[in-house]
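Q: Got a minute? One more chain.
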Amino acid sequence: MKTLTRTPAGDTPSMDRTLDFLKELVDAHGVPGFEDDVAQVMKRHLEGVGEFSRDRLGSFICEKVGAAKGPKVMLAGHLDEVGFLVKSITKEGFIKFLPLGGWWGHVVLAQRLIIKTRKGDVLGVVGSKPPHELREDDRKKVLEIKDMYIDVGATSDWDVKKKLDIRPGDAIVPDSSFAVMANPNLLLAKAWDNRIG
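A: Always. Here it is, folded:
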């Protein structure tokens, strides 16, 4: 696959149509139960291919009718991605959260995350009790998600609830934008599993 094209000047890379599509697909936010943004991307790119429908689980289906005697083929992938859900808000204004999908404690700490609220996106970062406040044995363990929180730059639960309108049940997605790596045949992004399918 050709990953980069060059401008006439020869030194500024620009994305081709395939990369534009992949970027749009993986940059869309869609944790389980909140896949509408991803479905809209698929709908735009499949316009004119077939008839669209959705089921009660949120599946997006595009059916192209072929010849009656021809083969029946299904291409399937899931729209959702691993993420988190707001569990509660502490009086100090920190967000406690639950994982949606498989997360390893090693990779969650210090992640930048986006909380999807009714008022819009809120950026935060995952934090925990600082190492100097932990016992020696605890410093050697993998920190569990239940012991982490998201800091959104608030000073109280009132700021979080009233000013930012963050509520339990709000979806949380990783802030991990699409990028072409130093080797242009390799791409960095969230949600490859299984939107690339």
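A: DSSP finds six helices and twelve strands in the chain.
Q: Perfect, thanks.
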